[in-house]
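Appendix B. Chain record.
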Amino acid sequence: MNPHPLANAISAFISSEKQIADLPWNQHPVFAGVALKHLITGQETNGQMSQHLVRIEPNCAIGNHTHATQWELHQVLAGAGETAMRNKTIPYAIGTISTIPLGEEHEVRASGEGMMLLATFSPPLV
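C-alpha cells predicted for this chain:
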C-alpha cells in the first residue's frame, strides 16, 4: 500500500484549506491498528457532516460496530480489504465506494497490505 497517497493534497472547504500531511493521526480509542485524520469536522459544517482519512494497518480491523445516527460513506484510496454487513462481504479495492446506512452493524478489515479510506459521516462523527 502506498503509505502516502495524499502526501501533497489539501482538504479544502469554503472557510479553510488544510495540508493533509500536517494534520495529526488520532489513534482509534477502541480498535488497534486504526488511526484517523479529521479533515472536516461538524463544527466547520454547522453539524451537517464530517470527513476523515482512515488508516487501517495490515491485517487489522475496525470491528463490528454501528453508528446509530449517522450515514457513512467509504471511498478506498489505497490498499485493499473488505467490509462486512448483513451477512454480506464487500471487497474493498482502490476506487471502491460503499454506503453504510445509519444503525447498520458493520466491520471493516484491511488485507495484508493495509488500507486507507476516506470516510464521510452525516451527521458528523466529530
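Further analysis of this model is presented in Appendix C.
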